[in-house]
Amino acid sequence: MGKSVSNFNEINYQDCYVAFMDILGFQDIVEKRECDQILDVFHQIKGSKIKKATMNGEELDLRFDKVHFYIMSDTIIIYINSSEKNALDMIVESTSLTLSHLTKLKNPVFVRGAVIKNKLFCQNDVMFGPAITEAYRLEKEVAIYPRVIISRKINCNESLNPIIGNLLLYVDFDRYNCIENNNVKNFKNDNERLITYIDSMLIKYDNVQRIKEKYLYLKRHYMHVNDLIEKVKPTISKDVLDEL
Questions:
Q1: Strands (E), 24-164
Q2: Partners of 149 in the β-ladder
Q3: Distance in angstroms (rounded) separating the CA atoms of residues 89 and 197
């Protein structure tokens, strides 16, 4: 007799950090052939070199080869076994890099998503588990706007390197920790470019309130990004900034 579904938890599930993201405006992206560029972005991220930083004399390894990507249509899932060293650091950094590469495209791409820690089964092209259900619910019901929130069940103060937390997280209006895109060095110039693009989308969707609200959120956020970055930069050493 085969094993029952109830046995999956102890045999097949792994405890993982999972970032579940929905690409907004995916139909328009397909029509404009942006998908090839997006695929290139993920190839770049998967092939990224190990990034290293030092904190209190300890070398922190952020190994992207430990991070897995599952991409289907308008859904991006990034996950890592929670037992890996600096697992939350790596999921935040990988998600942030994804946001950065997507917004650097000629026509910036924005996502809505959530990061959670829960049980996940993934083998070849099969993926399921409480992690997907929880992340999907948070993305749809709580994130709402183009942002990637971190579940309140995750204690970032305990699990996340404060260097990464200071650089790549911001606290939003509803007190959720959210992941910022990883473009610290060129944020000011890129920020202006993004605001110009967002303004054009606000004009385009002026009569579509549902879409307009999302771009209004983005404009409010990016207008404050420069202030956020300038605030934390003095607390980060030049060596660390050079490694980002």
A1: 51-55, 58-62, 68-72, 75-81, 111-123, 126-128, 148-150
A2: 114, 178
A3: 30
Q: What whole-number distance in Å separates Cα of residue 239 and Cα of residue 153?
A: 32
Please say whether the beta carbons of 112 and 22 come within 8 A. yes
Instruction: Specify the pTM.
Output: 0.80
CB 147 within 8 A of CB 172: yes
Which residues are 20's β-sheet partners? 77, 114
Question: In terms of residues, how long is the chain?
Answer: 244
Pair type for strands 75-81 and 148-150: unpaired
CB-based contact 18:78 (threshold 8 Å): yes
pLDDT tens-digit series, residues 76-133: 899 999 999 889 998 998 898 888 888 887 788 899 999 999 999 887 778 899 999 9
